[in-house]
Amino acid sequence: MKKTTNPIPYEASHPGYLLKDELDARNIQQSDFAVEIGMQKTMLNEIIKGKRPITSDIAILLETVLQIPADYWMRFQSQYEIDLARIKEKNIQKVENIKSWAIIKELVPVAYFKKIGYLVNDLTIDIAKIMEVYAINSITELAVQYENKKFAFHRKSDKLTVNMKNVWAWNMVAEYEAKTQKVNEFEVDNLSGLYKDLHAVFYENSSTVEQVKDTLNNYGIKFVVVNKLEQTPIDGYTFWSGDNPAIALTLRHQRIDNFAFTLMHEIGHIICHLVQDKNLHFFDSTDNISLVPQLEDEADHFAQNTLVSPQVWSEITELPQFDDENINNIATKHHIHSAIILGQINYKFNSYNIANEIDKKLY
User: Fold this and answer.
1) Residue ranges of the chain with pLDDT lower than 50?
2) What are the residue ranges spanned by the domains of the chain?
3) How are the residues of the chain apportioned to helix, strand and coil, as percentages rounded to the nearest 5?
């Protein structure tokens, strides 16, 4: 059965107003009408002003004199009382929404959620959306979770100012967006072709983010790009979502070498750690120091060796000099993007002043 929704009026209309209109239309004085129905004038006046209800006895009197059915007056009175109750409930809900929104503003970066299109400037809808994104059943639960939230494996640095409210929001948006994605079944044994496919995407570097998403989805890995927030130095986040692993990136640097390394680092977490324990969560930033160096080192090594194999790296180390021509030649030979090779050279030799014109931009 289709459910109907009755609009809540701004103001409830008392049947006494209708009675006044009826008397005015018939040119009947209120004093004369009071005498005719055997009612005190003050009592009639209170009905007309909406200060006294029309009872069933009064409805019968009105029916007798005005020839308007008693059930009409009773329906009008009943609707008035229902409207009053709904208006009262609406006002109570409005007050509760205001209180809830005050808490939300303390714990949620509301401006960010507006920017990414989650909020529509309707408190009822917006509160429901926040509760959906944060996977909570009450605003009280939001406050409790904020106090108890622990960001396991989150890299920290004394050099950076981290806003935990923003970090938590970034985290919840990533999980919420991943939850809505439908991807192929994930089989860790089927990933042999993934690295080759990703290399081809990196090498071409055209609509790279979209192609990476399609590639990962084909192999059963969810992929989300989350808009960055201030004081949220997260590059990547790896976690389990439903029946699939998921990767969220923020694209803070917009460079193909950084994008490729961060992505492969997160895939390393999936292969080396997440498939063994789906409850793990990895928050990663290239600017930060890991609280779990062993796990991060393993993911780093996976990324380095997958992007540039040890065999190719041996060839790189034998180059007479690291100039554009030599880097481009070996990149072309092995179908590896030049910026990825340059990034590895920069990192492993701690040398970032190599003169070059290699395009690092992520396209």
Assistant:
1) 1-4, 151-158, 288-289
2) 15-91, 108-148, 182-307
3) 60, 5, 35
Beta strands in the chain (DSSP E): 222-225, 236-241, 244-249, 282-284
Q: Which of 301, 325, 297 is nearest to 313 (CA)?
A: 301
Q: 357: which residues sit within 8 A by CB, 6+ positions away?
A: 324
Query: What residues pair up with 361 in beta bridges, in sequence order?
Result: 255
Q: How far apart (Å, rounded) are the C-alpha atoms in residues 27 and 286?
A: 85
Let me know the angle formed at the C-alpha of 294 by 258 and 191, rounded to the nearest 5 degrees: 60
Q: For residue 303, which of 236, 205, 219, 240 has the smallest C-alpha distance?
A: 236
Report the distance separating Cα 71 and Cα 79, nearest Å: 12
Dihedral angle, C-alpha 72, 77, 82, 84, nearest 10 °: 140
Exposure string of 336-363, with b = 16+ CB inside 10 Å and e = fewer, is bbbbbbbbbbbeeeeeeeeebebebebe
Q: How many CB atoms lie within 10 A of CB 157?
A: 13
Query: Tell me: the pLDDT tens digits for 152-179?
Result: 334 444 455 778 899 899 999 999 999 9
**Each residue of 62-114: pLDDT tens digit?**
999 999 999 999 999 999 998 888 888 888 888 899 999 999 999 999 999 99
Let me know: does 340 contact 257? Beta carbons within 8 Å. Answer: yes
Quickly list DSSP for 202-233. HHH-SSHHHHHHHHHHHTT-EEEE----TT--
Cβ atoms of 287 and 228 closer than 8 Å: no
How many residues make up the chain in this entry?
363
265's enclosing H/E stretch is: helix 256-269
CATH numeric code, 15-91: 1.10.260.40
Model pTM?
A: 0.76
